[in-house]
Amino acid sequence: MRLNLRPALLLLILLFSLGAAAHAPRPTPPDSSYVLALAAANRFLGAWQTGDLETGMVLVSDHARHAQNPEKFEEFFSGRGGRGFEITRGKGNRGRYSFPVILVTTQGSAVRRRTSQIVVVNTGKDDWVVDKLP
């Protein structure tokens, strides 16, 4: 008589993996300032994606605006071809967050991915602006 241990082994693996998942540390849920900072980063990157310089400039801090040549802003927002972005979990505190981003652009059939980060700061009254462009 031959025993088939495969179903029992699969069940045992499943139980162990569920137990490990239950004890894995869960990330701390973001606070409301994190959500507002993430929303500002998304709005800014959305303006970049659509080439909307005017909206993008409204979302830039005075510090970042004065640190860059105005032509650099126009160059950043201009461009041909498709654009997209990926943004991942940010780090920071209630007044300043940094989000890793990947800017994806196409020119013809070529796809370019540029890794960077965007820094968003609170200027008061839940008003968030980009303090460092990607």
Describe this structure in words.
- This protein is flat.
- A hairpin with a 5-residue loop joins strand 4 (110-122) and strand 5 (128-132).
- Strands 1, 2, 3, 4 and 5 form a 5-stranded antiparallel beta sheet that branches.
- With 134 residues, the protein is an alpha+beta fold.
- The protein contains 5 helices and 5 strands.
- The protein has helices at 6-23, 32-50, 53-58, 62-67, 70-77; strands spanning 83-87, 91-93, 96-107, 110-122, 128-132.
- The chain starts with 5 loop residues before the first helix and ends with a strand.
- The chain has a single domain (30-132), classed as Roll (Nuclear Transport Factor 2, Chain: A).
List low-pLDDT spans. Answer: none
Number of helices: 5
**Class inferred from helices and paired strands:** alpha+beta
| C-alpha geometry | flat
Spell out the helices and strands N to C: HHHHHEEEEE
What's the level 1 CATH class? Answer: Alpha Beta
Looking at the overall shape, the CATH architecture is Roll
Tell me, rounded to a whole number, the average pLDDT: 85
